[in-house]
Amino acid sequence: MDEGTKRMEEGLNSPLNDEGDNKDGLKKQVTIRSSKGGSTVERDKDTMAKPVAVDELEEQPLVKKKTKRVATLDAFRGLTIVLMILVDDAGEAYPRIDHSPWNGCTLADFVMPFFLFIVGVAIALALKRIPKIRNAVKKIILRTMKLLFWGVILQGGYSHAPNDLEYGVNMKFIRWFGILQRIALVYCVVALIETFTTKLKPTTLGSGYLSIFTAYKWQWLGGFVAFLIYMITTFTLYVPDWSFVDRFNGDEPKRYTVICGMRGHLGPACNAVGHVDRQACTLSSPGDGTLREDAPSWCRAPFEPEGLLSSISAILSGTIGIHYGHVLIHFKGHSERLKQWVSMGFVLLIIAIILHFTDAIPINKQLYSFSYVCFTAGAAGIVFSGFYILIDVWGLRTPFLFLEWIGMNAMLVFVMAAEGIFAAFVNGWYYEDPRNSLVHWIEKHVFVNVWHSERVGTILYVIFAEITFWSVVAGVLHKLGIYWKL
C-alpha cells in the first residue's frame, strides 16, 4: 500500500484525521463553463498550464476517492482485544497464559504493551497533518479525559461486572489507576510531543538507516526523559519498612510489617514502583510507610498493577509505536518499511533477552521494567510486520477480517466484552438465583457439560460465545457504518 497511491487514516478513529485530511486536501480550483448544455466543470488550477479539451474535462471524475484505512492497524488492534478477552476469561483455567507472578512474560503480559504500541502507530497517522495546533491540543486533551473517565468507571470499583450485579463505589476506596488510565497518560504525552513538534517534521528523509530516528529526535527525547525518570527513581529511591493490616484472613485484624530499608531492589515487596504507589495509602507521614487501616485493598499488595511510576516507563512503548507509524508514512516501498520494522524488532528483543538472562534488569510486567518494554515492543513490531506482509502485501485479508472488525470497534468490544458489561446485563435477567442466567446456562450446559471438562469448556466458551460472538457483532456494525469513537 504505497504512500503515493493510498491515503492512510489513523487507527483511533480520530476526528483529528478527518479535519487534517479535509483541509490539507483542498486545492484551488477554476471553473470552466462548457458550451455543451451550459455544464460546469471544475479543474485543479495546476492543470490549467496547458489547454484541455472540454470533452476531456467532462470525463474527469468530480468526486474525490474515499480514503482507505490501514488494514494491518485494525487487525493488530483487534488481535490485542482478542488476547485480552482470552487471558482475562480463560486465565484461571490455564494459568500459563495468565499474568506472570513476578519475573517473566506470559501471553497476558503482552496485552498492555500491544495496546500502547498500536496507540503510538495511530498517533503518527492521525497527526501527520495538523492544520491548527490549538485545535489539535484541545482534541487530545478531550480524548484523554474521555479515556480517564471510562477507565475510572470500568476499573475504579464502580462496575462489578460481569458476575456481581451490584454497582457503585465508596469514593474513599476508589482505584484511580487502570488500563484505560495508562493508555490515556501515554496517549496524551506522546500525542502532545508529536503536535508541538509538527513544524519540525521533515517532508523528506536524508540517506541512511538512522535518518528516520534523527528526523524525529524530539519524540525520542521525550521517550528518553521518561526512561531516565523511571530508571533514576527505581534504582535510587529509598524504600523504608512498611506495614499493613490484614482484615481479610480471620476474624481478628492482624498487622504485618515488611522489612525493606534499601534502594534499587527489584523484588516484589521492596521495589520503588510499589513504594511510589503506596504513598496514596499511607498516613500523614508517608516516609514511615505505614498504611491507613482503612486503605483500599490494592494498597496491601506489593505494587499497583497500573501504577504511576510504571506508567511513566510505559511511555516508551508508545514512543516505539509512533516510530513504526513514522516509518509507515515516510517509506513508500514494502521492503523499506519491513527492513526498518523487523530490524528494530529484533534489536529490541536481543536487548531484552540480554538484560533478563544476565539478571541486570529482569523482564517484569508489574514493574514495567526496561527489558519488559524492549521485549514486548520488539514482539509487537515483529507481529505487526507479519500482519503487514499477510494483509497489505499479500492481500490475505479474509482470514483476518474478524480482527479488523473488532479493531474498528475496539472501544465497544473492550467495554462490552473484555470488561463484561454485556454479560452483566444478561446476568441481570435470572430465574430465582443469580446463577440461573442465560450466560451461566450456556457456559455450563453448552460447553462444560458437553466436554466433561471445566478447562476445555471454559476455553471453548471464550472462543465461541465471546470472541466469535463479538466478531460477528463488530462485523454487522461495520456493515452498518456504526462505530464507537472517543
UniProtKB/TrEMBL annotation:
Which keywords belong to this entry?
A: Membrane, Transmembrane, Transmembrane helix
Q: Where are the compositionally biased (Basic and acidic residues) regions?
A: 1-10
Query: Where would you find the membrane-spanning parts of this chain?
Result: 70-87, 107-128, 140-161, 173-197, 218-239, 308-329, 341-358, 370-391, 412-431, 458-477
What Pfam families does the annotation carry? Answer: HGSNAT_cat
* Region (Disordered), start-end ranges: 1-45
| Domain Heparan-alpha-glucosaminide N-acetyltransferase catalytic, chain residue ranges per copy | 69-199
Coiled coil spans: none
| Name recorded for this polypeptide | Heparan-alpha-glucosaminide N-acetyltransferase catalytic domain-containing protein
